[in-house]
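Progress against Task 2.4 (sequence-to-structure conversion) is shown through the following example record, which the project officer requested during the mid-term review.
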Amino acid sequence: MSIASAPMTAPAQPRLWTQGDWNAFFGFGTNILVNLLVLTGLLRFVLQMPDALVFGRILPAIGLMLFLSTGYYAWLAWRLAKQTGRDDVCALPSGVSVPHMFIVTFVIMLPILSRTNDPVKAWEAGLTWVFIQSLILMAGGFIAPLIRRVTPRAALLGTLAGVSITFISMRPAAEIYMTPAIGVLCLGVILLGWFGGVRYWRGLPAGLIAIGLGVAIAWVAAMLGLGVGGMSFGRLADSFANLGFSVPLPAVGHVFGGFEFIGIILVTAIPFGIYDLVEAMDNVESAEAAGDSYPTTRVLTADGAVSFIGCMMGNPFINAVYIGHPGWKAMGGRIGYSAATGVMVLVLTWLGIASVLLSLVPVVAISPILLYIGMLIGAQAFQESPRHHAPAIALAFVPHLAAWAKTLIDGALGAAGTSAAAIGFDKLAAVGVLYPGLAKLGEGAILTGLVLPAITVFIIEREFIKAAAFALAGALLTFFGFMHGEAVGFAVSPTISAAYALFAAGLFAFAKVSTPAVLAAPQPRHAAAE
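Structure tokens generated for the chain above:
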């Protein structure tokens, strides 16, 4: 029979659950759980919000948003698997945006709480902030594909790797070594299972084994009075008071009530809306590098839509596609893990079970999973980009390292009741802390970490016109405060903006006057690594 006359067969229906989904479910589910732990702590202890508001309004709304988000991305993965006939398609991970969790808490809600002494007003300001953010996401989804087409992969993945190494990996790594009796052992379980290919008893997922081991050590230590893991029987007993059934209720009036603080809100909502666009593009690029190509516009508009629904129901935290798709795919995650996580979160938040679980599992038992994700994303930037673009990826890390260092410095000085300005920049410089440089370099790090490596890639490839275009983009973004500025404005960092503009002019002029005779011979490249 000829090929032309062979009967066509319809692609098989994609499997909704595989054995690998158990691994990804326990890994991703615990990632979501630790984020719920953190944001619940921020709401209760930093913002002093009453439990009735936290467990009765906010957490149920978060559960609804995550249920919609994870369900949608599971459907998108099912659709891709059906279209391609592949059985290895992995759904995009999504959840509450971790950077935004801290920004909306400390930059929006806490100042409003300090001004009004009213937790409800602080909550309303957070809702309005997410409302603005979600509109930016939905509108920006239509220009994001163009940005992806013109930006080198090393730049997109490099800035993502910078975020993963600094803000995703460093805190979990520190937590592991603060409680090594749990952290190091759980890390060993993760490394053996997910990098070493070790199969545990009856095929149990490495993530579940690690968490179970951590829980066992922490509670045995609690019974012996050793204090390892910070578990407390009193706190566990108190957590049962929050059990009950709560569904999200419309909070439209509260959303528009926060508009009285619109001046404070817009200062961060616009730049972080841009951050969302870039981060989502990076994560879609990361998924494509791992073999799963998703439409950027659908992803961004979906994030905006579910965030909009969430804030209208009382959730002051925005949804985002997460860093980590290659990690969940590498451990066997396909379609079902995403939807199952959404169902789990819905049950935990609507029934108040989250309160009990958050008092049962030590955070350090989950930290190795987050460290693993950071390791994979950091490695992917180098593995999925041409080898000779490696210097550009290394450069992408620098703004994020600056932002991370500044965050630590500010936190340490704040805890001591002072600040860098109060101490004096000259005194800090005398001991090697170049605070103003860290501040300027780290502000807008996600964009700086994209623009600088893009310029470098095009210089490496000797495409000087394209390099000049990105330098000019850097000048404009800096002028309006999206890069190297504390807030959006006019002529925010004019000196740095002018430097980028001069750099762009020089690149453009060089492209016009240079000839092969004045260009040095290119460095040898190893084709096998390309």
